[in-house]
Specification:
The chain is an alpha/beta fold. Helices cover about 35% and strands about 10% of the residues. The protein contains ten helices and eleven strands. Helix 7 links the parallel strand 7 and strand 8. The radius of gyration is 23 Å and the shape is globular. Bound molecules: pyridoxal-5'-phosphate. The site of pyridoxal-5'-phosphate has 14 residues, from helix 3.
């Protein structure tokens, strides 16, 4: 079939972005895109690390989530616990972290969890276009707060929050790139971070902290993350290795309280654990005919040994016998 034989145009929903043009290679003078300096890429270290990890635990590639569960590779999460403590002052455990495909997926998961068409959010007036166009596509209204040399102006933030309150609007979050802001490069000082937290608590609006540039500070000294300064929770923190190592690796992460994290996991790949250490896919999750699927389940068996299959099915049968009286 040729690409012109079927007309997709009438099927497209209203208001999609204009069609992309085919890529013909990079422009000679390309001032777009957050690409890194190829010569600064720690290539030898990356090759050595990839080989060491593959040799140590490459077999986990056979399992979704690398045998570490739905929050991603546990060793990386543990590395992040130490890094976030040392660099950003964040005290968290590996269970508070979700590994994502770049911080862009982190953005999508936070938005998918919190936002609905018609909502309002607060963002910096000049801001990463990827964040802006996601909000527009979701039908969410971004209220822009002006920046100065020290990042988001918290006096303007206070005024905007008061104004929205008068109109009966409670924004879903205050989105900020506080450390090396994109596109202005500003760094929000500690006092402004503190004031933002005070306003967030006073108005009951959480802070969504996008810290993907935090490793690019020239002096190496960064203010503590807003997440670290918060005494009451209410902050979701995302980060990335795209800017400090390589964007093509697509490795980012989210640090969030469990009540939000658990909702994001439900959006991502999550299986409820059954009694007796057996997990299965319940039939109704795999069918649009819920009544028909009620008494069905999906069992995947390629990664289990014969012995595990025998023991697991016996344990499952036991649970079914106790719960439903079958098999007899
Ligand atoms: C502020 C901000 N957040 C998130 C991203 C997404 O980056 P990545 O998905 O590569 O981590 C970018 C990319 O430029 C960005 O500028």
């Amino acid at each position: 079939m040729t690409s012109t034989s079927f007309d997709f145009a009438p099927l497209l929903p209203a208001g999609p972005p204009p069609a992309a043009v085919r890529w013909k290679g990079r422009a000679k003078y390309d001032f777009t895109g957050g690409n890194n300096d190829p010569d600064s890429l720690p290539l030898d270290g990356l090759i050595a690390a990839a080989e060491a990890v593959m040799r140590r635990e490459g077999r986990t590639l056979a399992t979704y989530g690398l045998n570490s569960g739905p929050q991603g590779y546990r060793a990386l999460r543990e590395f992040l616990v130490a890094k976030l403590k040392a660099d950003a002052g964040i005290g968290c455990t590996a269970d508070d972290i979700l590994i994502t495909s770049g911080s862009l997926q982190a953005l999508d998961l936070v938005n998918g969890t919190l936002l609905a068409r018609g909502d309002t959010v607060i963002i910096e007036e000049d801001c990463y276009q990827g964040s802006i166009n996601r909000l527009i596509r979701l039908g969410v209204t971004p209220v822009g707060i002006p920046l100065d040399r020290d990042g988001m102006r918290v006096d303007a933030l206070a005024a905007a929050l008061d104004d929205l309150k008068r109109k009966g609007v409670r924004p879903k979050y205050i989105y900020t790139i506080p450390t090396v802001q994109n596109p202005t490069g500003t760094i929000l000082p500690v006092e402004r971070r503190r004031e933002m937290l005070r306003l967030s608590a006073a108005h009951g609006v959480p802070i969504f902290e996008d810290d993907c540039y935090c490793d690019l500070i020239w002096s190496g000294q960064r203010p503590p993350a807003i997440y670290a300064m918060s005494e009451r929770g209410g902050v979701i923190h995302i980060g990335s290795f795209s800017k400090s190592i390589a964007p093509a690796l697509r490795i980012g992460y989210i640090v969030a309280p469990w009540d939000v994290m658990s909702r994001m996991l439900a959006l991502k790949l999550y299986q409820p654990a059954l009694a007796a250490g057996v997990v299965i896919n319940p039939g109704p999750e795999w069918s649009v005919n819920k009544a028909h699927a009620r008494s069905r389940m999906r069992l995947c068996f390629a990664s289990l040994s014969h012995e595990e299959i025998h023991q697991g099915v016996a344990a499952l049968a036991d649970v079914c016998r106790k719960e439903f009286g079958v098999p007899r």
